[in-house]
Design a protein that fits this description.
This protein is of the alpha+beta class. It has two domains: about 210 residues, no CATH class; about 50 residues, SH3 type barrels (Roll), CATH 2.30.30.100. Strands 6, 7, 8, 10, 12, 13 and 14 form a seven-stranded mixed β-sheet that branches.
């Protein structure tokens, strides 16, 4: 029973594994100064923010009138009378609070309010290259509003280094065993997505941006590394296959959709399990975590190092990975001279 319980938790945990004080800048706009939109070019629009539609921002500028701006050209939106917050287009003072120990947490419902599964975003700064780095954690199935907000965050950056085994190209072709293993994970994700009434990350985000660069390993290298280390995904065990048959059968979308109480229970259980990912990979599953997390993080950081060496100074860069990767990434970018400034949180799921 203990082994089965651990594997059930691992099925869920593998998925995440694959105002502000300012320095040298003016205070946020007063209510009588109007809203401001700061573009990536450095230009500022001053006037009234009117809203967004179809990834375009509509703004009534005091000088040039009504304009529509593609969201990917916007650095930040500063509303009148509000603090700039995590995405202020200025250098932030370091927060006296330490960085989080985990970038995924579950706040359960209580007191008549809903709960949430949340993922963290940390802002860091490297003085030598004047690079602002966002460590953006994610879960791979979530509510559409969660991915819409993540898209806004990532669109504000000049470069996004993104997770995705096999997505970088240039590696070895995947073999039949590797494809079968990943197909099993995909089928599990589909079962969970449907049962929980959620959306795939890749369906909720636009990966077509030219400023997005894959920063992961190729599938064949990943499989070879797993074999060299003597570890395996749970998809390769007979117990997983038995649990997979149970999950696909029990968590059918039509059944969960007909029973709201069942869906609420499943969301709560899944959110609680995902929020323990960091502790499992740091504990009994440390050897598996060294490949799923640490080794792939090193590949991502090699891409970051290339960009820091070759790119222009002063860029905003996002390192966009599953939330379970962020504790190790945060420690390693700190060794590279990045100073933690502060952290914010996004709600991935609502749990009633």
């Amino acid at each position: 029973m203990a082994l089965a319980s651990t594997c059930r938790r691992l099925l869920l945990l593998v998925l995440p594994a694959l105002g502000a004080a300012v320095r040298g800048a003016p205070a946020p706009p007063r209510a009588d100064e109007g809203d401001r939109v700061v573009l990536k070019s450095g230009r500022e629009l001053v006037g009234r923010y009117e809203g967004e539609r179809d990834r375009r921002l509509y703004f009534l500028d005091d000088e040039i009138g009504r304009v529509a701006v593609a969201r990917r050209n916007v650095r930040a939106i500063l509303r009148a009378g509000e603090e700039p917050g995590l995405f202020a287009p200025i250098l932030l003072e370091a927060d006296p609070a330490p960085p989080p120990r985990s970038w995924v947490r579950f706040d359960p419902p209580g007191g008549g309010r809903p709960g949430h599964l949340l993922t963290g975003i940390s802002r860091l700064f490297e003085p030598r290259t004047r690079t602002t780095l966002f460590l953006v954690g994610a879960v791979h199935i979530g509510e559409p509003a969660y991915y819409a907000r993540l898209q806004d965050v990532l669109d504000s950056c000049d470069l996004v280094l993104v997770e995705g085994v096999g997505g970088g190209g240039g590696g070895e072709a995947a073999g039949a065993d590797e494809l079968a293993s990943m197909d099993a994970v995909t089928r599990l994700q589909i079962a969970l997505k449907d049962a929980l009434g959620l959306q795939f990350q890749k369906d909720g985000l636009d990966y077509s941006h030219p400023s997005w660069r894959n920063a992961d390993v190729d599938l064949a290298s990943f499989s070879r590394r797993m074999k060299d280390e003597g570890v395996a995904l749970p998809t390769e065990s007979p117990l997983f296959r038995a649990l997979m048959r149970f999950v696909v059968g029990a968590f059918d979308l039509s059944r969960a959709g007909e029973d709201p109480a069942m869906r609420r229970m499943l969301r709560r259980q899944a959110a609680s399990a995902i929020a323990t990912a960091d502790t499992l990979f740091a504990g009994g599953l440390r050897k598996l975590g060294s490949v799923l997390v640490d080794w792939r993080n090193d590949a991502a950081l090699r891409v970051l190092d290339e960009e820091l060496a070759a790119g222009r100074k002063g860029r905003w860069i996002a390192l966009f990975y599953g939330a379970a990767h962020l504790p190790d990434l945060a420690a390693k970018v700190a060794e590279r001279g990045f100073e933690h400034q502060r952290c914010g949180w996004l709600a991935a799921w609502t749990v009633e």
